[in-house]
Amino acid sequence: MKRICPAFAIVAFIFAGCGKTLDINTNPNTSSTADPKLLFSYAATTWSSNRAAGDTYIPVAFATQTISSGADYGFGKSNVYDISTNSAANTWTTIYQSAGHNLDLAIRTALSSMPANNNTAAQCRIFLANIVYETTVLYGDIPYSEAWKDDISFPRFDAQKDVFEGILQLLDKAIAQIDMSSPLKIADYDMFYQGDMSKWSRLAHSLKLKTLMTMVDKDPAKAAAIGQLMTAKKTISSSADNFLFPFYNEANKENPKFRLLKRYASGLNEFFYANENVVKYMSQSDPRMPRYFDKPAGAPLFEGVQSEEDPSDNSARYSLYLQRADAPEVLFTYQDELFFEAEVYARGLGVAKDFVKADQLYKQALEEAIKFYAGNGNYSAFINSLPSLTTAADPVYQIHIQQWINYMDRPVDAFTQWRRSGPEGSEVPVLTRPDGSTPGKLIRRYPYSESELNANINSPEVTPDFDDNMWFDL
Amino acid sequence: MKNLLAVSFCVIAFSFHVMSQSRTITGKVTDINGAPLQGASVSAGKLGTSTTAEGEFSLSVPSSVKKITVSLVGYRPREADLQGQEQLTIVMESDAEKLDEVIVTAMGIERKNKSVGYALSTLKSEDILKAREVNLVNALAGKVSGVRVTSQSGTLGGSAKIIIRGASSIDGSNQPLIVIDGLPVDNGAPGFSLNNVVAGQIDFGNRGGDINPDDIENVTILKGASATALYGSRAKNGAVIITTKKGKKGQMTILVNSSVRAERPLKLPELQNEYAQGDRGVYDVKNLNGWGPKIADMKGRMVKDFLGRDVELQAYPDNLKNFYETGLSYINNVSLAGGSEGSDYRVSMSATNQTGTVPNTKFNKYSVGINSGRDFTSYFSARTSVNYIKISSAGKPAQASNDPNVLAIAINNIPRTVNINDVKENYLDPVTGKQVPVAPATNPANNPYWILNNNIASSDIDRLIGNLVLTAKPLKWLTISNNFGTDFYTDYRRRITRKGTFGALDGQFIIDQYVSRVINNDLIFTINKNITSDLELKFLAGNNFNQRELKQNSNTSTTLTLDNLYTAANAASNSPVNTSNKRALIGVFGDLTLGYRNLLFLGGSLRNDWSSTLPKSNRSYMYPSGTLSFIFSDLLHWDVLNYGKFRMAAAGVGSDEAPYQLDFTYTPANTYYVQYGLNGNFPHGQYLAFYGPQILPPLNLQPQKQTSYETGFDLQFFKSRIGFSVTVYKSITKNQIVNIDVPLSTGYFAKKVNAAQVSNRGIEADLNLKPLSDFHGLSWSVDVNFSANEQTVDEISGDLKVYNLQSGYSGLQVRAERGKSFGIYGSAWKRDPAGNFIIDAATGYRQSVNNSRLGSIYPDWTLGVNNTFSYKGFTLSGLVDVRSGGVMFSGTVANLRANGVAKETAVNREGRFIDKGVNDLGNGRFQENVTPVESMQQWWTDVYSNTLFTESSVYDASYVKLREVRLSYALSSSGVPRWLKALEVGLEGRNLLLIKSYVPHIDPESNVFGPVGNGEGVEFYSVPSSRSIGANLRLQF
To answer: Using CB atoms within 10 A of its CB, is residue B842 exposed (0-12), middle (13-18) or buried (19+)?
Structure first.
């Protein structure tokens, strides 16, 4: 029997270590805590990159007709309204999972820390509000009030009006909790404003204006709130407040547009053309023209290409400048603010109509827009060559055209701007369905993520078609 | 590990003996039908040997020896009087009570077959080695009822998946446990993405395929939870119990088994040879398709080819045939085995060297195994087995899509007017050193020879499997054994994409290094005791400790500076990933079997597991099993029925979860997703990033539970000339631990919960016939196995009706749906109530409806028929494998058709056709469609490349396949020199013929989801499977 002792020793050894042996279920590669700034960084990077890349930028730009594919389907067929279900799903995933979820976790962490980190929560809320805004203008009714709550398995889809109201409330909450004196905030990881809370506050007010301007045609009562914003003058007030996500001239940190050309075409633009629906509204002498588009050597003019048209040898292309490695993703700019303000005064939204003030703001907006792309310079001659709002037959139309041009490289904003620029059939500019596009009307929304529809019992019973108007879109 | 090796070598050192001899007795051992019997033990006192595959033996004995004894499990022992004879023929009679045969069951426990109350199947060495497979798992295909094997692709060293009695889990693995000599080994396939299968999958194989088939004595398949209850949770999907060969007492035997085989693709796409590349009938060198002009119409006209030469178009019909090479396989094994009283040894060395049908693909596997036992005293013995395996492979092709290196796309779409030899000889521009694309478009596809010559995926595996069994028998009725073992491997993989590869012009390479370790210990106390003369008892109790660990270190290096230098410092960007997981399980088990008069057996077992992966409060779970076996033939005494057994069993089994699923943790991010392969890296600038859980962790996770029942008969008629067994079974797996998809708007992809119930019920039948038994020297046996399994998803979670198992491409999904089996879902043709296609009256196209079920991924039934004929020294055997039912999606076929290169796309190319169907007039009214499709190119392109029409590429997955054939001739002892005990030559072939298939262009046996996921039935640009034909030589010294 002595000889079997080693066997018993093994058993004894096993049972002696039993408890500890089994207490190994802690992942050594993850952490039980994370600084909110790290979650903010993940959310900002994933969402901004999605906005600049093949799941949002390319399909929305093709469908909105701000750039042209030259009738080539190398990067999808969204120009003929065949939006890839993958793109719609990936964008939805980025919004709700990669970005929204981590911003929500960051907010929870910031508020539950001792003492509460209110500025961090405010920064995350303002960023989240911007994301929710872009989500609803793409998809329409979306989960918001019940989204990102661990105890709710099937968030209901809020009506778009309620989503907009929720955005306004979220921004108000963020504004209210900003504490300029507190050192607790995201500073070193704030790639937008380096922790300058006054800029975050101004951005929040501007995002309120943007939201209200999207609502006001459907809900004219919002004009009052717009008027209050005009009076308060707390919105962004210089190009130093531009809300830009940075990319870098380092491998895999470049703007995704640059990465695409680098990976597939040795850095040349073989795929994307100037869309005639932008080019024809721009003067050939517009200083932005050579920044927006590259003209083939020898071509006399910047020629656009229709959305489903083969390019010619003289066709201009979407510029390499806009697709440079360190081109930032432009989320909101001072010229956006100024164009909105010009529109407010031209339309008398909560303020008295004032074409002189509108023209002043309009010209200032144009100057900022041109400087943004073409750099500092004296552009007054070009600006003055454009119709003055004080004399133009339809000053609002002039503003909308310039807003459309301003958003040439921001297709989600261009898509929203076009839809809110007038009732169906009277949008600015007038667009037509590309040849060969899916039967129906002009596109008016992105398709929902199929995985959301399948998994959420509160999904809309009737899924809207791509050409169904959403609440704000008259 | 060091200790294990040291003890192993000691045991081996004890085992070698020098033996003396004086005269040599040779002979042949057969059954009453004249069929040779392998493995029969031939002994004379302390001396002994065993018979070869041809039933022959040779034994040196002192001249004083007068008798030899021959014994073999299942046969009555025989004594043969030498009487001066040196050449003997010994006929063994089948033991009327064949069920006294001892078989290996769970935990390596040997039981009388009679006492086993559940179905199991055993394959012997010769069944495994017949036209031997490199991947052991593939060798099981078609041979065992209830077992279904699916190859992933034709990749050299590729993976294979086993499903026993249907998939029971909607999440997690459905693979059985593989056990070698009591040691559960790793059968994983790390690196197979479950979430993104369409992105450039490379089939690096499943580790179960590493096992050397030549070392296997037998394989027992334990199919149900009743059989595997003692293994616990890891064997809820069945178990493959492998017993390796051991040396036998007697003179050293040297066996050489060599095969040389040539391989060609089993089935290549049938392509059209009438149309050139282009668009709408106009030639365009920039297109990689067949939508250009009719080649015959271009006669006499010169056009630019892809090399810029002026050429007259002509078709090259043999391009595909010429692209694929004849692969060669050399499979060699040498083993030395022997033993003396109280010790035995076996040393085995194997080399498998293959080149594939895809140029520049290589697979080399070497293994050395030592298995040795020693009885130190009458009450203490030891056995050790150590196997070292070295595998290196290079050139494994990328499959699926979203990867510039996917080969099938690069090959299949080469325009019919391009000579493959031109492609081969001109893939590199001699002046610029840059790649020459086959279609010089702005964003061209890669030249396949650029991929093959530069973008190499390689893998190097070092694996050690070893165990040490110590057995003490302090009392006659008590045995104590301890089996300690480890399975350890490293897998170093590198995937290169050279600078200048279209789709990744800056080049990149990925290093993946996996380290896996399994440690297992089983301590078992066994009591065998006859309580009375009628009542026998077998009781065992034991403890199991199992620990598994997998570490991964990976790095993706992009934007390479210098060409052809694959080191991280040469890359502008490096993105490392480090992961590891470790789990442990402790089990205590007991098993009691009572036998009454050797005709009635009752058994019961109980096991309790403690798992590290469950919450502490729920980490302990217990489950029982019970069996009954009744040998009713012993009461009937019918001459016709020489053996009849009724059996039934019921069992429960619990199981745990993957490690680290319980805590709410934050993960450091190293990359983020961007469409078109443009993923970005963190830190972004100076900004690092973390992300929260993507799956909502559970609050109070419980173990998963499976309950199974089975009953059946084993019958032998006419002195076992007819054998028949049938089993019906049902298993219910509930409380499953699943990641239930939640709306993304919750912020999570899924939440982990106990939910879902899947049931499988089915019938298995085996028929063994011996129609001819030594009829003028001719014997013929037929073995038929039949399986039918019906899987039903009883419940998912609450009101949830559908669960996405795995996603394919653009809306194609494999899903679990309540009330149905796992199936393929996607867009289906819209049909009227009469089943007619609804056609758009404006376009002539069929209309479709999304999210439709397109069929089950599982067959209704499978059948394997193996015939063996033997005549004198000749043996001819052939295995036909049949699958009936189920569907599959083929991405390859869709691509061939969308690009106008499939043969059928040439039919009526310039014409129009009216699709048969109806137009929907609304209000339930329909009329026959008369709208023609205006453009055949548009129709083929839209229907086969558009995500709206998944059903267009879904096919009946049934097939009939000639799986393997072997013709051998064994020379009799008199025909070989004295120094050679036996010689057999054979011709063998595998995967020989696709007798019937409903899938055009490809072998329906293909599965892009690989061996780990639950998805099946989806093919996506797979490497064609191979037919292999060759010769085999077996020598015994």
So the answer is: exposed
Cis peptide bond prior to A290, omega within 30° of 0: no
The structure's pTM equals 0.84
SS3 B29: strand
The kind and range of the H/E element at B610 are strand B600-611
Q: For B196-276, where are the E strands, in sequence order?
A: 201-202, 216-222, 239-244, 250-265
Residue B421 near residue B438 (C-beta atoms within 8 A): no
Amino acid identity for residue B103 in this structure? I
B76-98: per-residue pLDDT in tens? 778 888 776 767 888 887 654 44
**Is residue B752 a contact partner of residue B661, using CB atoms and an 8 Å limit?**
yes
In this model, does residue B102 exceed pLDDT 80?
no
What is the spatial distance between Cα A55 and Cα A411, in angstroms, rounded to a whole number? 12
Of the candidates B521, B684, B744, the beta carbon closest to that of A97 is on B744
**Is residue A378 less than 8 Å (CB to CB) from chain B?**
no
| Cβ–Cβ contact A462 with B under 8 A | no
Task: Tell how strand B380-394 and strand B302-304 pair up.
Answer: unpaired
Contact A34 B666 (CB under 8 A): yes
- In chain A, residues 73-92 whose CB comes closer than 8 Å to chain B: 74-75, 82, 84-87, 90, 92
* Mutation for testing the A interface, residue in B375, B523, B690, B739 having most A CBs under 10 Å: B690
Interface touch A39/B692, C-beta < 8 Å: yes
Gap between the Cα atoms of B445 and B805, Å rounded = 32
What is the enclosing helix (H) or strand (E) of A292?
helix A289-292
Say what the pLDDT of residue B873 is.
82
* Number of cross-chain residue pairs from A and B with Cβ atoms under 8 Å apart: 272
B558 contacts B506 by C-beta, under 8 angstroms: yes
Q: What's the rounded Cα separation, in Å, for the pair A200 and A204? A: 6
Tens digits of residue pLDDT in B707-750: 999 999 999 998 889 999 999 999 999 988 888 888 999 999 98
> Distances from the Cα of B379 to the Cαs of B474, B481, B527, B539, B787, in angstroms?
6, 11, 14, 19, 45
- Cα–Cα distance between B576 and B658 in angstroms, integer? 23
Peptide bond connecting A429 to the previous residue in cis, omega within 30 degrees of 0 = yes
Is the Cβ of B746 closer than 8 Å to some Cβ of chain A? yes
Assigned token pair, B568: 């991280």
| Mean per-residue pLDDT of chain B | 87
Torsion of CA B123, B128, B130, B136, to 10 degrees: 150
Contact B613/A at CB under 8 A:
yes
User: Which among B636, B645, B650 has a CA at the least distance from the CA of B603?
Assistant: B650
Q: What share of chain B is helix, strand, coil (3-state, %, to 5)?
A: 10, 50, 35
Dihedral over alpha carbons B953, B956, B960, B961 (to 10 degrees)? 30
Cβ-defined contact of A85 to B470 (cutoff 8 Å): no
Minimal Cα–Cα distance from A452 to chain B, Å? Answer: 5
Nearest to B1026, CA basis, from B371, B262, B505, B424: B262
Q: What is the mean pLDDT of chain A?
A: 93
Nearest CA in chain A to B697: A150
Q: Please name the residues between 474 and 493 in chain B that touch chain A, using a CB distance below 8 Å.
A: 474, 480, 482, 484
Check CB contact under 8 Å for A18 and B610: yes
The two tokens of residue A88 are 């719609």
Query: Above 80 in pLDDT, residue B776?
Result: yes
What digits encode the pLDDT tens for the residues B1010-1024?
Answer: 777 777 888 888 888
Nearest chain A alpha carbon to B404: A264
Using CA atoms, how far apart are residues A95 and A92, in angstroms rounded to an integer? 5
